[in-house]
Amino acid sequence: MRLIISLVLLIFLSACTTSVLAPTFRLVQKALTIEVEQTQQRLSQQLDLNFQGFEIHRLSITQEQPLTIQNLLTYRVRGTYELTFKLPKRQIKQSQKPFELYLQLQKEGKTWRLLLPESGIEGSWRSYLISEQ
After folding, report:
1. Is the Cα torsion angle 116, 118, 119, 123 positive or negative in sign?
2. Complete DSSP assignment for 57-120
3. Which residues of the chain fall below pLDDT 70?
4. Is 123 helix (H, G, I), strand (E, B) or coil?
5. Residue 127: which H helix or E strand, with range?
6. pTM of the prediction?
7. Distance between CA 124 and CA 40 in Å, rounded?
8. CA 31 → CA 8, 14, 75, 89, 123, distances in Å?
9. Residue 49 carries which DSSP code?
């Protein structure tokens, strides 16, 4: 009987630990904002567009998969969102836009970083601190 109770408690505690360490909805939204800002800046420079901001709506997280990158706990988060780019005379809206983010918990367990793969360099990442505010 003690063995069964111990196993149930162990399973319960490990499930709680994983969910406590998993990225929150707000964290995912902030990380997605950083990624879209990076894309917006590149597009503005390449296409000479005058973006006046963007809005993210209808964020839906469909998968959170834990893995390890550079010996730190990282989550691959997938889902969809709606994106509206604001231009001077119109708006461009994209619905059901898929995303895949890599969110890494730092060693102290208090901060998260968005990892973006470095183009052309296998296994190399650009890293952005995700602000708590």
Report:
1. negative
2. EEEEEEEEEEEEETTEEEEEEEEEEEEEEE-SS-EEEEEEEEEEEEEEE-TTSS-EEEEEEPTT
3. 1-20, 49-50, 132-133
4. coil
5. strand 125-130
6. 0.76
7. 22
8. 35, 26, 12, 28, 20
9. -
